[in-house]
# Entry
Amino acid sequence: MNPSIHTITETHSYRAVLLPDHVPAQDVEALADAQQLPTIRVRAANATHATTSAARVTGRNVLRVERVEC
# Structure
């Protein structure tokens, strides 16, 4: 019988900036920089996984993710 091998992956905290439906495209970056867009915190192994997880959980597009050091 083979022992099962488990891989432990370190996760990091990320803040995902979400794209609301009602915001004009030309205003998105300015609103994100002013922290006026909705965000969600997720834990993931990397930024790509954080983006995918945030989009899946919220059902919204993600503008960007930022790693948060606790």
